[in-house]
Specification:
This protein is mostly beta strands. It is built from three helices and 14 strands. A four-stranded antiparallel beta sheet has the order 1-2-3-4. Strands 10-9-12-13 form a four-stranded antiparallel beta sheet, with no helix packed on it. It is globular and about 60 Å long.
Length: 216
């Protein structure tokens, strides 16, 4: 449900994030053309921002104008990032506009689900644990995410991992595979909280796994 609507758009920033915490990742895209208006060469062509809500077994549906009247207006976007800036468990959205003031959108979803946010920290190298993989299991659903610095144009969302949990009040298990190959497992974690997990980097693990015959 994404292709046809996006054909004429020029995207500058995007991200998967669960805005309503229903355990289905949604998708936002900030668009803005690089071409000038035919009537006014001093102005670039504005385009709509997309917010695609994912519905289980049905796909993605574009709801930006319904979700926020401000997003119904075309803009010349040049960047964006998601983050929970007011720390209420709901992910918010920041949008950068070419030659204008940025837009900060606060998520006021009322009937959202439960959530969990994880921050990974590593001592001895790779402080933000970039490349770590986290698997969260709740009820009959498994979600997997990787810690990365894969932002968009002039944009970077936090390296924290946010998981929407739907109606689950407890996470059955959290499995963390650290960049050096070490694995941690935690069980029966209450929902609706922010947790920091720390690990000491062990380069010997990577050396042993990646060594070729005759090396040490």
């Amino acid at each position: 449900g994404l292709g046809q609507l996006s054909l004429s758009a020029v995207g500058w920033a995007t991200g998967f994030v669960d805005f309503d915490n229903d355990s289905q990742a949604d998708l936002w895209v900030v668009n803005g053309n690089t071409l000038q208006h035919e009537e006014d060469s001093t102005q670039l062509v504005a385009q709509r921002t997309f917010i695609f809500r994912q519905q289980a077994q049905r796909g993605f549906f574009e709801i930006a104008g319904q979700a926020c009247p401000r997003l119904a207006e075309p803009i010349v976007g040049r960047g964006g990032a998601h983050a929970d800036f007011d720390d209420d468990g709901k992910m918010d959205l920041a949008i950068q506009i070419h030659g204008g003031q940025p837009i900060l959108l606060r998520n006021t979803t009322v009937d959202g689900g439960h959530w969990l946010r994880l921050r990974l920290r590593q001592e001895g190298g790779n402080t933000f644990a970039l490349g770590a993989t986290v698997q969260v299991r709740s009820q009959d659903r498994v979600q997997t995410a990787m810690v990365g610095a894969d932002g968009s144009y002039l944009s970077q969302s936090p390296t924290e991992l946010h998981f929407g949990l739907g109606d689950a009040t407890v996470v059955d298990s959290i499995r963390i595979l650290w960049p050096d190959g070490h694995e941690d497992v935690y069980e029966n974690i209450p929902a609706d909280q922010r947790i920091v997990y720390e690990h000491t980097f062990t380069p010997d693990l990577i050396l042993r796994e990646g060594s070729s015959p005759g090396t040490s």
